[in-house]
Amino acid sequence: MTTSDKVALVTGAARGIGLATAKRFLAEGYKVALLDINSETLHAAHAALAQEHDIIAIECDVSQPDAVTLAFDAVGRQFGRLDALVNNAGIAIFKPILDVTYEDWSRVLAVNLTGPFLCTQAAAPMMRDGGGGAVVNITSISGLRASTLRTAYGTSKAGLAHLTKQQAAELAQYNIRVNAVAPGPVDTAMAKAVHTPEIRADYHDHMPLNRYGLEEELAEAIFFLCSERASYITGQILCVDGGFDSTGIGLP
Ligand code: NAD
Predict the structure, then answer these.
(1) What mean pLDDT is predicted for residues 121-150?
(2) For residue 86, which of 166, 30, 147 has the smallest C-alpha distance?
(3) Ligand 1 pocket, 207 CB below 6 A?
């Protein structure tokens, strides 16, 4: 099978790391389903790419089981198979631990952890029936080290790291590999919203490469893990973080 017959679905694909990842798959000839909760940015991304590429845009909240089922059914009808799933959709709420509300906690866990659970449950039968596939979950260095302000966010990403290993262990029987990419800071809209000047300074102080990552640098690692070149890699968490994790130093 050539990559032009292959299909990838990227969640949170309307902007940021997800959009860069969708473009990376398109550059390799994949057909791509862009999935996002934000209809305005989703349709803008679709309009920018649709003239030259075989893509569909699906508006969907990954935390809602019925919406996820409908979305994956639409991919099956449109493309007939699914080879790669990137569980990238995520939200960040950074607050001191005593200010985190039940609503904050529930929403972050629902999008960042339940979303990848639901999407992978929907994707796996399609991949199995097509002979196999690859899933990449987007975790975070905040799920590897505890630090202030990240009670809900860091816990959701730590949970997703474990879910990755669990899914890898159980889905291998269907020739489905599951890995995670743990980004360091990337200057997307999300980072602009939650990274205060103090947080930015902390990251720079603690990263050997001393800079934020680029969306394209994340997309490259995500694509690699989905490709045949990673055929013997499963259950791994690849830090793409300018060396942050290697220092063993946590943020304040
Ligand atoms: P972003 O906010 O720019 O993009 C996230 C996309 O996900 C948006 O288009 C948004 O509409 C979509 N989304 C949010 N909730 C959704 C839902 N319920 N259903 C479907 N789509 C939804 O963020 P980004 O920086 O590109 O982050 C992408 C992923 O990378 C996230 O999982 C994030 O936690 C992770 N990450 C980012 C950084 C960083 O510094 N930017 C660092 C570590 C991890």
Answers:
(1) 97
(2) 30
(3) no
